[in-house]
Amino acid sequence: MFQRTVIRTSKAAARSLPRAQPFTPVRQPVAASLRWYSEAPAAAKAGESAATESKPAESNEATQLKEQVEKKDKEILDLKDKYLRSVADFRNLQDRTKREISAAKDFALQRFARDLVESVDNLDRALTTVPAASLNPQNPDLVMLHDGLKMTETILMQTLKKHGLERIDPAIANEKFNPNLHEAVFQTPQPDKEDGTVFHTQQKGFMLNGRVLRAPKVGVVKNS
């Protein structure tokens, strides 16, 4: 009896107590935690990949710019070389043109001078044919003619000299024979003169602008 009474009492006390709720474990949001720990490395990896991708892009751009600069430098050098060549060709053309013009002038003047020296020779022969003994007051007409011819010859030679044409007579100054300037016609001994001296001029020569237009024909001393 007593045992039943205790059991009933304990059951009544148990019924009077509030029922405890069943324990339910609180679960953390796995997705959020995973997102926190997974997004940071992913962002770092994305940044590294972006930086890795940008570096080759920058390197390619720098390479392209360098190639463009080298290409432009080559074009500049090529254009400079062509310019210098053009300037050199133009200067050579100018020099060649000047030489050709000068040669043409000299050639034209040379032909004119060759034809003119024949007239000068005739004038000189006319003066030398008059003997000095005939030039006296008894022949006033001859003296006047001779003086007029002499004056004409003097003015003519001065005019020709202004244009580069000069007459040469090596016998006047007893010059030494020069094969580059003189033409030896004969040789003869002259005891009072040295060998190789020009003592006679058979035909006077002419120089045109420092060059021999016609070599004088001369006689040369040869004692040995």
TrEMBL record:
| Recorded GO CC terms | PAM complex, Tim23 associated import motor
Assigned keywords, A-Z: Chaperone
Cell location? Mitochondrion matrix
- Which residues are in coiled coils? none
Looking up InterPro entries in the UniProt record yields: GrpE, GrpE_CC, GrpE_head
Q: Name one GO biological process term.
A: protein import into mitochondrial matrix
**Region of interest (Disordered), residue spans:** 1-23, 45-68
Pfam families named among the record's database cross-references: GrpE
- Calcium as a keyword of this entry, yes or no, is no
Q: Where is the composition biased (Low complexity)?
A: 45-54
Q: Which domain of life is it from?
A: Eukaryota
Q: Name one GO molecular function term.
A: unfolded protein binding
Name the family: Belongs to the GrpE family.
Q: What is this protein called?
A: GrpE protein homolog, mitochondrial
Organism, scientific name = Pleomassaria siparia CBS 279.74
